[in-house]
């Protein structure tokens, strides 16, 4: 296993310490239990947004903690759900008196642990479950669809509305709307390697790729011969458009998300390929995001996300954000 | 070869088209000859900054075109110098009447072609040659030291001063100062694969890494057994500190740069390891940058850069920047 690490048991701790040292102006980190919170926590009168999940998907979620996005992130060990005590401790630190909104990717362990934390938390709260992955129904770690890259878009849009002091019920409804209008599908050219396992999560021959892969290397729709960027874009955009039932003239945000091991040059090439598919379907790409945002350790590959946008969502997408991984306005 | 591409001959063109489609608010792209310029070009009365080099190092340089950084970038084919006609055409588009400053990484082909462009360009001009790589003297593609990740820091700091309407001579002196106060060294865990070649650039056994590797996979100081993150940080920071002749109490910017195939989790872990080395040497890390900025296609590995900062450089580093890859203030 080739990784820039010391002891496999300390990977998460050392990475979090590095994250705090690099971004101490934005975040504070607690190591026992583990959570990352806005340096300015709590923000009085604002609904606090908390997300989390297994590590290995960086910058998700710690990279999105800051003004205009998340108040807290709870990182589990690599590809392992965080525990309820992490979520509860984070909620108590960031609660500014207007309630707490949990944003949870749809994996059974995450959902169960966030539910337990929510039950123990004494303040007002609600939850959004993201399940944007159109590849498969039910999977290795979850029932129903998996929550993947559109979680970033949910966190950005709901985070902007929270910053503008929207109330808990409105934020919950907004997050559900963004999730409902988002579809994602991924493709893996290589497996990822979990540090503690020391070997690739799955086997993939030199001439094969996994269409519809999950962000932990879970099986997708099928293992196929390597396809061109154009053919990949056609299959994925086709699947998403079918799922979202888009119509000509819809405004969309197009996100090309790297899985961690694919260079930016290829991600922009995929953007070009996906854009041509969107053009063919009569979709207007009004916003875009290209880069490594919801990764799968060192996996080569990418996912494509479309979110159907309305004026409110677009305005909230454009609103200022100041985090380690997204910063504008 | 596993890559998200169509035809190997169209990789650069399609990637540039995707880049323009995703960042049309920031840049305009010309495909014959190839250059990327600020959407607002030319900016009257401002010295125009132009950089460039072989592709495959994205986001370098096109990702740094925008307000507060570069006016133009000239991308060559993968790991191939751009041609003088690209640079000349870009210079003529972005020249705002206050002169043009070329920022060139020290590779013989790049230096020669930028010199030819400078000779043909009729306006006032000067050049900065970056050569921050402390690993080796002379290498596969150059005489003297290689220009690598500190080029990003030069472009940011000089770009901020140019935005504040500093004159050509001051900018040239400032860029030379940043370069002189910067040192970088990299390590590769895997080779990169150039699309047109279709196979890894160099061989590296499963238990070996290349210490001091160049950003095209050129040989470094030596091929060694895999080392821990702490040992890598100790060797690299030791080499840079020796080269820069730092003294206790110096303020430094610490940059951990991914080579393209290494996940962010490991880069933050390397930041933690490098920070402990800096602490041991009495260096104050006053600014930081962690991510994939000067890459080598899909190579796994990273480079570490230290730049000794003074108050002027720090203030210019903090100044607003709005590009695809750096955005703050």
Describe the structure.
The structure is a homodimer of 329-residue chains. The first copy, chain A, is an alpha/beta fold and 329 residues long. In chain A, 32% of the residues lie in helices and 24% in strands. In chain A, strands 1-2-4-3-5-6 form a six-stranded mixed β-sheet, sandwiched between helices. In chain A, strands 9-8-7-12-10-11 form a six-stranded mixed β-sheet. The first copy, chain A, is globular.
List keywords for this structure.
alpha/beta, homodimer, globular, six-stranded mixed β-sheet, 329 residues, 8 helices, Hypothetical Protein Tm841, Chain: A,domain 3, Rossmann fold
Brief account:
By secondary structure, chain A is α/β, with parallel strands linked by helices.
Blueprint (SSEs and pairs):
The structure is a homodimer of 329-residue chains.
Chain A: H1 11-22, E1 27-31, E2 34-38, E3 48-55, E4 72-78, H2 84-94, E5 100-105, H3 108-120, E6 125-130, H4 150-163, H5 168-180, E7 182-188, E8 208-211, E9 222-225, H6 229-244, E10 251-258, H7 264-280, E11 284-291, E12 301-308, H8 311-318, E13 321-322, E14 327-328
Parallel strand pairs in A: 3-4, 3-5, 5-6, 10-11
Antiparallel strand pairs in A: 1-2, 2-4, 7-8, 7-12, 8-9, 10-12, 13-14
């Amino acid at each position: 296993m080739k990784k820039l690490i010391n002891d496999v048991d300390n990977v998460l701790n050392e990475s979090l310490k590095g994250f705090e040292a690099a971004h101490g102006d934005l975040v504070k980190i607690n190591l026992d239990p583990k959570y990352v919170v806005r340096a300015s926590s709590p923000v009085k009168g604002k609904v606090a947004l908390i997300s989390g999940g297994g590590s290995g998907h960086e910058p998700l979620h710690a990279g999105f903690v800051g003004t205009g996005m998340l108040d807290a992130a709870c990182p589990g060990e690599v590809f392992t759900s965080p525990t309820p005590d992490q979520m509860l401790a984070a909620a108590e630190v960031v609660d500014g008196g207007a309630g707490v909104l949990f944003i949870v990717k749809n994996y059974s362990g995450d959902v169960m642990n966030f539910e337990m934390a929510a039950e123990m938390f004494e303040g007002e709260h609600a939850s959004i479950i993201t399940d944007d992955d159109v590849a498969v129904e039910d999977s290795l770690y979850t029932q129903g669809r998996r929550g993947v890259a559109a979680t970033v878009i949910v966190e950005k849009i709901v985070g902007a509305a929270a910053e503008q002091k929207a109330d808990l019920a409105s934020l919950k409804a907004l997050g559900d709307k963004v999730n409902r209008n988002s579809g994602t599908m991924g493709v893996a050219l290589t497996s990822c390697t979990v540090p503690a396992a020391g070997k690739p999560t799955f086997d993939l021959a030199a001439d094969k790729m996994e269409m519809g892969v999950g962000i932990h290397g879970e099986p997708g729709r099928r293992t196929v011969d390597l396809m061109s960027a154009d053919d990949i874009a056609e299959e994925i955009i086709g699947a998403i458009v079918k799922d979202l039932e888009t119509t000509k003239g819809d405004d969309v945000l197009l996100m090309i998300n790297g899985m961690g091991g694919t260079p930016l040059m290829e991600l922009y090439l995929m953007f070009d390929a996906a854009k041509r598919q969107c053009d063919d379907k009569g979709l207007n790409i009004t916003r875009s995001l290209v880069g490594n945002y919801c990764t799968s350790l060192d996996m080569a590959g990418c996912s494509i996300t479309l979110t159907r946008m309305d004026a409110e969502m677009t305005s909230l997408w454009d609103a200022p954000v100041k985090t380690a991984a997204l910063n504008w306005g």
